[in-house]
Specification:
Blueprint (H helix, E strand, L loop, with lengths): L10 H5 L16 H10 L10 H42 L14 E5 L5 E6 L1 E2 L9 H11 L11 H13 L13 H8 L14 H8 L4 H17 L2 H11 L6 E2 L1 H9 L8 H9 L13 H17 L5 H9 L6 H5 L3 H10 L12 E5 L3 H18 L7 E7 L5 E5 L18 E2 L5 H10 L7 E4 L23 E4 H6 L3 H11 L1 H10 L18 E2 L1 H12 L3 E4 L3 E6 L12 E5 L3 H17 L13 E6 L5 E7 L4 E7 L14 H13 L10 E2 L8 E2 L11 H13 L36 H9 L66 H10 L6 H12 L8
Parallel strand pairs: 1-5, 3-4
Antiparallel strand pairs: 1-2, 5-13, 6-7, 6-17, 8-11, 9-10, 12-14, 15-16, 16-17, 18-19
Pfam family, one: Transpeptidase
Enzyme class: transferase
Organism: Paracoccus niistensis
Length: about 850
Amino acid sequence: MKKPEKPRRLAADRRYAAPSAAAPPSGGGLPPQQAQRRASAAPPRKPRRGNFVTRGVTGAVSLTWRLIWGSFWRTGATLALILGLTVAYYYSTLPDPQALFDGRARGSVTMLDREGRVFAWRGETYNTVSADGIAPVLRNAVVATEDKRFFSHIGIDPRGIASAIKINMAEGRGPLEGNGGSTITQQVSKLLCLGEEFDPIKWKSEAEYEADCRKSSLWRKIKEVPYSLAMEAKYSKADILNIYMNRSYLGAGARGFEAAAQRYFGKSAAEVNAAEAAMLAGLLKAPSYFSPTSNLQRSQDRAAVILGLMHDQGYLDDAQFAEARANPAVLSKAAAARAGGYFADWVMESGPGFLTSETTEDVTITTTFDQTVQRQAERALKRIFDEKVRDGSKAQAAVVVMSADGAVRAMIGGRDTAGAGTFNRATQAKRQTGSAFKPFVFAAALDQGYSPNDTILDAPITIHIKGSKPWTPKNYTRRHMGEITLTKALSQSINTSTIRLQEAVGRDNVRRVAQDFGFAHDITASPSMGLGVAETTLLEMTGAYAGIRNGGTAVRPYGLVELRIKGDDKPLIGQVGGMGQRVISPKAASELIWMMQQVVENGTGGRAKLPGREVAGKTGTTSSYRDAWFIGFTEQYVTGVWMGYDDNTPLQGVTGGGLPAEIWQAVMAEIHEGLPPQPLGVIAPDAAGNMIVASDIVSADSDDPLAAALAEAVAAAQPVDGRVTDVVQPGDATGMPIDAPAIVAASPDGAADPLAAALAEAMGESAPAPEPARLVEPAPSGPPPAPVPAPVPVRSGPIGAAPAPPPAPRTEGSTVSSAGEDAPPAPSPVEAAVAEAVAPADLPADDALNDALSQALQGIPALN
């Protein structure tokens, strides 16, 4: 039988036929030819090694590495993109470099003394300096100190950061505490606060804003990187360095190296030498600590370290290094003096805040300050304390020196001791004045017509106060002298007599006089007011005495003469203070000045004498010796001294006539060195109590012929400023010396003076024979004056009773009494002649007087 034929296979069937069982399965469903080629090309698979544990660990490690590697390059790419965008953003916000030089939020105040010299600064002074305005040695000192790779890095220095971290951890600090490893570019970014402006809502003050900007933290360091890179991309190295050198704070209120060079050395930043450059660069680490005005030696030691860095880095050769080390930088005279600190603070407080302490502009203030007087006063105060006060004493003192018009020339607000602080005891400390208040009591009395020769009782007195216990003042010596003159009562600082006089003239009148002279405005009209229980400052008291010195016109102490914005021609503010209203008459002021002279010549102020100079003043000591004062004046200056403890601890055995008077004398002797002696311009009362004041005599160029002749005659007899300088002082009934007017009938050359003889005859005096080369007061030739009636003791009523009206004008030489009025005085010969001349004529009093005297003096050669 014939076998069936197999079906004929097509070529396509053969090509795509299923593989045989023997065919390798590696084709993966590919066409046979491709599968065969792949199978022949694939290497033989190695048999697996290890168990399932090792294979699992290996797989896990491989997977982790693949994940890390994949995340790293993706994270890096992301961070690089963020950094680039941040740099681009900062780059777009950065202004021109010149706009970043001045980083101050407020302006500065520069103070000039009376001669136009700078003596103090307040706020932050600033002067723009460009790249070519900085000395190369100063630029090199900054780079050597702060960033020696500044010109080679791109804004950050990884090597510097790593080195700083290593140093911090080696010294036991945190990695970012202490040395930060910041480049100059990073420090500039910190100074700029990363471009963030001050926001008063976010920060309470600018100080808090700056402190936050300078805070060192990891996040702050991270933020500095893109900002620094942006600055490096936009600015040149010179621009970045200029921003740094203009914005850096260098102590003592100086912002930038130009201001610091001017402040410390009195020269431009382009003129400093190597030693000065090193000192300025050394301030960058800690401006206040290394400030040469705080501690010059410490600043010089720091500068020596900087010089070593400059030498090591090749900025100084051996010769330059040796010269700079041998000649360390020193302060300029103005900076070394540090004069006027208390005065400058007072001027800042006395001016408007928006132009002084809170000014946004640079301001220049011209003042009354005298640097020479200030140094002399400080030197005198230090000498007295060195000689008279034990070491370590915490006793304080304050001194104010001013002119009679209230212009303050010097001010010492306290001794320079540990813990003294900046508290100004001359302007801020309110203290009881003690007997330094008494001149106001006597001023009120003299202004009402009392005379220095009037008498008053020194005896125990008790004042009954409604609702309180009776008050009995006591004298310092606990003794009483009976009836004494007002002059002696003031010169010996008698408490009981002062209170009697106060009650006689009225407390309200005394209080008004004190307040009008500038004393504290909260004086209580209590019986003890006259003994200085009210509080005031040394500046106010000195100003009140200046009012007495200038003839009874109140003054307001001032230090500011004019204030102007820097660069402006016209001042914004003129003088604040000076002469004010009249308080007492010139006659009363002249009498009071003479009485205060006796305080120094014969009373409690003897230690304040200045040989060859006329001095007037008053001592003051409060209860329990807590405060001691001496305030007085010469023709040139008015000076006040206070001494005490800040905590009100009683002084041990110190009164106003002791150390304060000695300090006053030492200060005044210093500041009067080289000045001509000038009298105070008053003449003592004569036996009748009459006063002659040189300022009352008109000048010789007057339109009135008689007045001009009188002035010429008086000027001839008084060659020194029109005042008598050589006067005999006869004693009064109580034995007290009294200066008498020099009315003579001889001219200075010894020739007969008919005008003086006529005046003497008109006043009831005989004309003595001339004595050449000496001006004397002849002994009275007339009958002795009538005896003065015994005084009636003053008794006061209770507080709240209606004050007694002020007494009517009184006869010179009468006795202080509370009962009745004095009989009207008999007219003098001159008054009678004037009255007779005026009565029949319808002429003004001045014209009638001139006519009468002209007729009486006809025939005198001097007037023809």
